[in-house]
Hints:
The protein is mainly beta. The chain has four helices and 15 strands.
Amino acid sequence: MQIKDLFTTLAAPAICIAAAIPTPQDPVEPQFPDNGNDIVGGTAAALGEFPFIVSIQDNGRHFCGGTLVNPTTIVTAAHCAVNQDARSLTIRAGTINRTTGESRQVKSIVVNPNYDANAYDGDVAIMKLSSAFTETTNLKRVTLAAAGSDPAGGSTSTVAGWGTLSSGATTTPTELRKVSVPIVSRSTCRSNYGESTITDKMICAGVASGGKDSCQGDSGGPLVDSSNKLIGIVSWGEGCAAAGKPGVYTRVGSVLSFITANS
Length: 263
């Protein structure tokens, strides 16, 4: 299983697999040519289509996604934030090209105190910015799912990010991409991953045959419903886009109190 973040994937892939625990989806940008692809099975996103998505960068290198909650607040995955030095992090927003757009420094980080790093349960964190973004047509705060809300199996969702084209890939794209994936019922997802692995704080999304998913570098980014409401945060999966192994996301409705208390 794999977190969708390349800090972990590139640094110690054998540990993630051998331990047989969830492994997230988020990357440091490798020093290889950009192949122009990312999210598995996706298409190019248009400017302004996801005005709330941000690129989280460490010394200028993209490694995770995030979502603008208000002009000074980003929500992302906890595994993107643990052990990070806020002083080295910047946020790029208002862009589909992760090398352009508005930039702000991170001032502080708050990781969900109930985050279970072994199971990626409650995988959510808040990053506060040193100065506010000015909202524009292409840079807007997201609408959050209601407390306790739980997307229905089969409903449409879309995930966007600057992650890799396939599991374990060593290139990340410059341009934002997206893919639509149906919500997988929790009972089905538990059959796929194991009853105790998928908690009530998680939602799953993907197609049974595989081929469409978030991947490394997408961790922390948004999963939205048909009205662009934030319902999930990219967390982990077993590889990327594997048949019978949907992507796993933090359920925003289950962690809304933490998000609002720290925004």
